[in-house]
Write a structure and sequence with these properties.
CATH architecture: 3-Layer(aba) Sandwich
Distance between the termini: 33 Å
Helix content: 40-55%
CATH topology: Rossmann fold
Strand content: 15-25%
Number of helices: 8
Length: 296
């Protein structure tokens, strides 16, 4: 049962998150960044934090280095924000929590829509994988022990990038995937809540809307087949409107014979894995890092 304080944290978040968008997109991005400062309070102390590391033109990443002796396993973490907002800064504490758990964590600031519609963000995440293979060692990372994960839009991108890399047979063999309350089937979401999803899909896909809705790089549930993903951790909360996406993708992953764990936590809203004041967040982090320790 939620404590009164937890109820207040969730109430205030829902009032912000579920409120209709106001102002310009730049103003919306700033409001999100300002709000997430609450979630980024009291970050763990880690070995080092490198901001704005240049990967290529128009692509930078924050890199969190664990304490202790290298080499460290590597996590590429893809932030959420509906493909149109969010950054490594909005997810700074979570990125550092991965490093606190012992993972060299690379968090790319992929290009955002609508200025840079699909496939720009997807392509940036693929490039980050290639860059990590070549450069993780500079920061103490072991590129033979890699995982990829993300939340919300970042969960979608993770589930899209990993099958693309696996099918190309040119990239690294990932040890684990982390899918945190992601969206995996745009067509299904459109059928469920078209008024909400269609504007987002149009912003993300630009001129590729609606043709790309079925593209497995957009709706990665269509890319799931044997060998498409490494062992996969999936987590969401019962109070999240898109919790069904996590259940559906877990079923598809299981049908493909891919090892996976699905955790649906009672009363947890979208974005709860950044809210360490919630017991559900702390439990989710424990489950996630336990999974990574067993697989990476």
């Amino acid at each position: 049962m939620l404590t009164p304080h937890e109820q207040d944290v969730i109430r205030r978040w829902n009032e912000f998150y579920l409120k209709p968008d106001q102002g310009s997109l730049l103003e919306q991005r700033k409001r999100l960044a300002d709000y997430f400062e609450e979630f980024n309070a009291n970050p763990p102390v880690i070995g080092a934090y490198h901001e704005g590391v240049h990967l290529k033109a128009d692509l930078h990443a924050d890199i969190a280095v664990p304490k202790g002796s290298a080499p460290f396993p590597v996590v590429i973490y893809i932030h959420g924000g509906a493909w149109t907002r969010g950054s490594s800064t909005t997810h700074r504490k979570l990125v550092k929590q991965f490093a606190e758990a012992g993972y060299l964590t690379i968090a790319p600031n992929y290009r955002l829509a609508p200025e840079n519609p699909f496939p720009a963000g997807f392509d940036d995440c693929v490039f980050t994988v290639d860059w990590a293979v070549e450069n993780a060692g500079r920061f103490g990372g072991d590129a033979t022990r890699m995982a990829m994960g993300g939340d919300s839009a970042g969960g979608n991108l993770t589930a899209a990038v990993l099958p693309a890399i696996a099918s190309s047979q040119r990239g690294p063999k990932f040890k684990a995937a982390i899918l945190i309350y992601g969206a995996f089937d745009f067509v299904g979401l459109m059928a469920m809540a078209k008024d909400t999803v269609e504007p987002l899909a149009k912003a993300y896909l630009g001129a590729n809307y609606p043709a790309a809705l079925d593209d497995p790089r957009v709706s990665p549930i269509r890319a799931i087949k044997p060998g498409a993903l490494p062992p996969t951790f999936i987590i969401a909360g019962t109070a999240d409107a898109i919790v069904g996406e996590s259940r559906t993708v877990a079923e598809a992953i299981s049908r493909a014979g891919i090892e996976n764990e699905l955790h649906i936590l009672d009363d947890m809203p979208h974005a709860f894995m950044q809210m360490t004041e919630l017991a559900g967040c702390r439990e989710g982090l424990r489950l996630m890092f336990d999974f990574l320790r067993r697989h990476v």
